[in-house]
Design goal:
Structural class: alpha+beta
Number of helices: 5
Largest sheet: 3 strands, antiparallel
Shape: elongated
Distance between the termini: 32 Å
Radius of gyration: 23 Å
Length: 183
C-alpha cells in the first residue's frame, strides 16, 4: 500500500452567532491531503485553550478530564488507522469517520460490486447470458483481485478510490504482466 500522510489536530470552533463563552472542540483528521472534522462533544473556554498543543491549559480536575478524553480520542484514531493499514484495508476518511463514530459501515468495494454483478449474471444464464460469458467475468474478477495484491498489496479497494491511474495501471498489468490482450 502506498505511504500517505495521516495527522490529527484538536481545535476550537466557534458556534454560529458566537459572542463569547465556551467554544466547541473538534478533531481534524487529515489523510492524503484531504480532511474531515469530528466533534468531540466537549466545550472549552478559548482563553484556556493551547492551540499549539491542542489541549486545555491548567491543573484543575476538569482540565485533566478533558485532556484525558482528548488523549483517548487521539489514541482511538491512531488505532483505527493502524488497524486498517495492518489489515491492508484501503484507508478513506469516510471509513475512518464511520469507525470513529461507531458505525462500521464499510463503503462499497470494487470486488463486492464485481461479485454481485457476476452472481446476477449467473442467475440469468440461459436467458440473457451464456455460461462462457459468465466464466469470462469470473476470470476478470480473479485478474482484478490479483492486480490489487500485485500493485497495492491489498485484498480489495473501495469504489470511491478508483481513479484513472488505477484503470490505466490495470490495463498495463493485463498486457505486460499477465500477457492478456483484448480479443
Amino acid at each position: 500500500m502506498l505511504s500517505k500522510t495521516f495527522s490529527l489536530l484538536f481545535f476550537l470552533k466557534k458556534p454560529r452567532n458566537y459572542k463569547s463563552g465556551k467554544m466547541h472542540s473538534y478533531l481534524r483528521v487529515t489523510f492524503d491531503g484531504r480532511r474531515i472534522e469530528l466533534s468531540t462533544q466537549r466545550d472549552c473556554e478559548p482563553e484556556k485553550w493551547n492551540a499549539r498543543a491542542g489541549r486545555k491549559v491548567g491543573n484543575k480536575e476538569d482540565v485533566k478530564l478533558l485532556n484525558s478524553y482528548l488523549d483517548t480520542l487521539q489514541n482511538k484514531a491512531y488505532d483505527i488507522h493502524r488497524h486498517l493499514v495492518d489489515h491492508n484495508i484501503p484507508v478513506t476518511l469516510e471509513y475512518l469517520k464511520s469507525m470513529f463514530s461507531g458505525k462500521e459501515d464499510r463503503a462499497i468495494s470494487l470486488l463486492d460490486v464485481f461479485r454481485k454483478h457476476n452472481d446476477e449474471m449467473f442467475a440469468l444464464v440461459g436467458r440473457d447470458f451464456t455460461l462462457s460469458t459468465c466464466n469470462r467475468y469470473e476470470a476478470a474478477l480473479g485478474n482484478v483481485s490479483k492486480f490489487l495484491y500485485y500493485k497495492y498489496k491489498a485484498k480489495d479497494i473501495e469504489i470511491d478510490q478508483l481513479t484513472y491511474s488505477f484503470i490505466s495501471d490495470y490495463a498495463f498489468y493485463l498486457k505486460a504482466i499477465r500477457h492478456i490482450s483484448h480479443k
